[in-house]
Amino acid sequence: MRKSVWIIGLLLLCTIVKGQIVERPLPNTMWSLNSVPYSAQQSQATLSLPFWDDFSTASIVPSSNLWLSGNQVRISNGTGVNAPTINVAIFDGVDANGAPYNASSLINGKTDSLVSHPINLATLEASQADSVYLSFFWQVTGNGELPDEEDSLSLEFKTPDGTWRSVWSTTGGINLETGEFFQENIKVNSEYFSDTFQFKFQSYSRLSGAFDTWLLDYVYLNDSRYEADTAYLDRALTRKPSFLTAPYSAMPTEQFFANPSRYLQETNVGFYNLNSSFQPIQFTTTVRELIANEQIEVLNDDRVANPLPGAFERRTFTSPALSANLNALADSLWLETSYVIRSGDNYFIERINPGVDTTFNTNIDYRLNDTVKVITVIDDYLAYDDGEPDFAAGINQRGGKLAYAYYVEGRALLTHIDINFPFVQQAGEPIELYVWNNLNNDPESILYQNSYSVLRPSSIGELRAYALETPIFVQDTIYIGFEQGTNEFLAVGLDKNIDSGDKMYYNVSGQWQENEFVTGSFLMRPRFDKETAANFEETDSGEARDIKLYPNPTEGILFFEGELENLSVFDNWGKVANYELSKVANGYTIDLSFNKKGIYLLRLSQGGNVSFKRIILKE
C-alpha cells in the first residue's frame, strides 16, 4: 500500500513537471515492511532545562535523545542558506519514506512535525514564572522549494491536560525568500508548567505533496531569559570546508598526479558570531592523510581573524592550497581537511559567583559547532558531490535520458558507473546505461551501452556499482548517464553543497538540452577500478576495429565484409532481436527489417575476436 501511495504522489508531480530535470525531497528512512517507527525506538525520557539543539552533531534525522518524533524531519548540511550553524532540520512536506501524506487529497493539512521529549517545568520557582522562553531560527526555501502563501509552519505548546495549542506561526510566500534566517523568541507562560511539558514544530501544506521547504535551526529553551535575549556566547562554523581539489571532490590517483597544480585550490569555510559583541577568533586548518594516519600540512596555525568579527557578523575563513609533496606512489589518499576555531566557547554558564567559581551546565556545549571536516579522496573515481544527498533529481518520461559531463585527465580504463538511486521503491526499474564522447546523437558517439536494473540501496546515500560488461578506454570529456524505461520519476541523489548543474544534460524529445532548473551535484560517478585495469588485456577487438558494416543508418539490410563466425543482435533494452543472415560474395547480408526502428547493438565474432557495432534502424 505504501508503495502505491508513493507512486501516485510521483505521478501527481510528474503531470506538472514533465520534460525537464526536477527536484524532490529525499526519504528520511530506508522503508521496509518490517521497519520500526521512530517513536517506538525510544523511551519518553523526561528532560530538564536547558534544552538546546543546533543539529550540528545529528545525522539524517534529529537526535532521539532530544526529540520524541523526528523521523518526518531530515537533517541536511547543504540546504540551509546562511544558517546559524552547520546542519539544519528540514520540513519538506513528505513523510519519512519520501511519500505524500495523502496522495489523493487536494487540501492542506498537517504534514511534517518535530516533537520534543517531555521537559520538567514543574520544579521552576515562582520567581522564574516570567522568564521561560523558547527561541529558534527559521528560514523558507533555502536551497529547496518555496512554500506557498497557503502553507505554514507553527510552534505548539502542550498544556498539562494534553492539549496542543499554537503559540506562533508563519505563512509562506515569496516576500519571505530573503536568503536569511529569522529568529523568534517565544515566552512559555506558567499555564504550561508541568513535569510533562512538550513543544512541537508543525508544518501545514498540501497533503498530496507540495514539497515545500521550511528550515529550522538553533532551538533553545531555558529559564532566566527575557524577550530580547537573542544573543549567545557561541561562535560557530556554518558549513563543511570546501574540497582540496576543484572542480572535483574526488579523483583517480593517476589523473590527479598527472597535473596536480591544475586541481589543487584554496579552501574556505563559513563562520558566524551569534553574540552581540565582537570576539577575537583564531582558526587552524590542517590536512591529514587518514590511511597512513599522518599529518600532511598545517595550512593555517591559530591564524587570527582580522579584523575581529563583530556582533552577529558572518565571515569566510580561507586557507591556501595544499603545497606539500604528496606520495605519488600511494595507491590511494584520503585527505581530511579540518577547520577548528578558538573563540572562548565553552559549556553554558549557569551561574557565576564572583571571586569564587563558575557553574557550567553540560547540556549545552558551544564547542560542538567549532570544528568541521571534509575528506578529499584520491583513489579510483571522479566525483563532484560530497557523498551526502540533500535532495533527489531526475526526469519522468519513458525513454528520457540524463547525462553528466566529466573531464578525464589522460587515457583511462572506465570500469564502473556508480549511482545513488535513493528510493528503495525504484529498485528493479529498467535503465539503459550509456557512456558518450559527445551529445550530438551520432551513433558513433556512444562508447558504451547496456541494460541494467536499478539496484536497491542499503542506505539513503549509498552509491551502487554498475559494472561495465566490457571496460572501455576514455579520455578528455565524456558523458555518463542512463535512459529510463518508466514514466515514473526516476530519482538520483542530489548534493546541494556543490553546484555542477552546468554539467547536467537531459533528452526527452530527441534533442539534448543543458540543465537550467537544478542546482547541485548528482551522486553519479565514473570509476576506474585499479584491479580490473591491472588485469585488463587490451585487444584490437573493440569498437576501434575497422569493421566494414554498412549502410548505417539502414532501412533493414546491412552488408558485412569478411568472415563471420558468430552474430548476436540486441535491441535498445538489451533483449535479443530478430535478424536473418545470408552468405553472399565477399561477406554476408544481415536483415534487421523484422524489428522496430531504433538503435541495435551487433556482437560480431571473427578470427577469435569479438567486436561490437551500434546500428540505427530507420523506417
Number of helices: 4
Which range best describes the helical content: under 10%, 10-25%, 25-40%, 40-55%, 55-70% or over 70%? under 10%
Low-confidence stretches: 1-17, 31-41, 540-544
Structural class based on helices, strands and sheet pairing: mainly beta
Q: How many strand elements?
A: 39
Global geometry: elongated
> How far apart lie the N and C ends?
43 Å
Largest sheet: 7 strands, antiparallel
Gyration radius, rounded: 29 Å
For the residues shown, what is the average pLDDT?
89
Beta-strand fraction estimate: 35-45%
How is this fold's topology laid out?
Blueprint: H1 2-17, E1 22-24, E2 51-53, E3 67-69, E4 74-76, E5 88-91, E6 108-116, E7 133-140, E8 152-158, E9 164-171, E10 182-187, E11 199-206, E12 214-222, E13 235-237, E14 250-252, H2 253-258, H3 260-263, E15 267-273, E16 282-289, E17 294-304, E18 314-319, E19 333-342, E20 347-353, E21 357-365, E22 371-379, E23 391-395, E24 401-419, E25 430-436, E26 446-453, E27 464-484, E28 490-495, E29 504-507, E30 513-514, E31 521-522, E32 524-527, H4 530-534, E33 549-550, E34 557-561, E35 566-570, E36 580-584, E37 587-591, E38 598-606, E39 609-617
Parallel strand pairs: 14-22
Antiparallel strand pairs: 1-23, 2-12, 3-6, 4-5, 5-12, 6-11, 7-10, 7-12, 8-9, 8-11, 13-15, 15-18, 16-17, 16-19, 19-22, 20-21, 23-28, 24-27, 24-29, 24-32, 25-26, 25-27, 28-31, 29-30, 33-34, 34-37, 35-38, 36-37, 38-39
